[in-house]
Amino acid sequence: MKYLIALITIPLLLLTTFCKPKDSKENINKELAYAETTNANPFALVQLFTSQGCSSCPPADRLLDKVKEDYDNVAVLSYHVDYWNRLGWKDPFSKKKYTDLQYAYGSKFGDGRVYTPQAVINGSLHFVGSNEAKMKGNLSKFLKNTAENTVVISEVSKNVNTVSFNYKLTGGSTDKKLKLALVIGSRETPIGRGENGGKTLLNTNIVVQEVAVSASETLGSLEINIPDIVKETDELSLIGFVQQDDLVITGATKMKV
């Protein structure tokens, strides 16, 4: 599961401020010229809304890890929400903007309510994230369809504070954004208090930072800051996806840093 070139679509709700040019567009174009002939492959992106303070979430976290290992053409993201922090354990990966994203999905899907663990596939449907039968069935459904957008990431470079990379997009770009998430591949956390007090929890592909640009910028370079929560021993990856304004995802790509 080293590189996976896939695709993307959805409106982006989480922005970043760390974008800047790196190379000339001529050089980037040479590096990524082969992307013009890349075929759109079937793909799926699973976004799991979870919390270390929620007693129902560990089975979903384990299932997400299993999906990551079992499917080459599926990308997974773990978004840690902050509304469970009041119960005695503050999830170190939780952010309000991830809760805001989940509420945006809640509005899209109907009544505006949120719950954990909630899995969303391709920004198009949701279900309880620990339900393995629904996970497999929905992945099977989406993996029959080709993506509308293709994203290629290249020239990935990591230093102490940042990860920089080049990207190229193909496919329609109207009312879409390209979003790239920096994720910690896996982390075990001893939980001191709250509903999971005394347990050690495994979390997978934890989103710790994001950047976003308009999909109309089909060629470019980006930098993403590495936050302090990342340890030297953590394995990092980039997950890229394109979102439409209606939150539908039409393609995704993943690459280890």
Strand content: 35-45%
Briefly note the structural class of the backbone. Answer: alpha+beta
Spatial shape? globular
Number of domains: 1
Task: Report the radius of gyration as a whole number of Å.
Answer: 17 Å
Report the major sheet: 5 strands, antiparallel
- The quaternary organization reads as single chain
Give the helices and strands, then pairings:
Blueprint lengths: L2 E2 L20 H8 L11 E7 L7 H13 L3 E7 L15 H14 L8 E4 L3 E4 L3 H11 L7 E9 L3 E9 L5 E15 L9 E15 L4 E7 L10 E9 L4 E8 L1
Parallel strand pairs: 2-3
Antiparallel strand pairs: 1-12, 2-4, 4-5, 6-7, 7-10, 8-9, 8-11, 11-12
Please provide a brief summary of the model.
It contains four helices and twelve strands. The chain has helices at 25-32, 58-70, 96-109, 132-142, and strands at residues 3-4, 44-50, 74-80, 118-121, 125-128, 150-158, 162-170, 176-190, 200-214, 219-225, 236-244, 249-256.
Highlighted features:
257 residues, alpha+beta, Immunoglobulin-like, five-stranded antiparallel beta sheet, four-stranded mixed beta sheet, 4 helices, disordered N terminus, DUF1223 domain-containing protein, DUF1223, Thioredoxin-like_sf
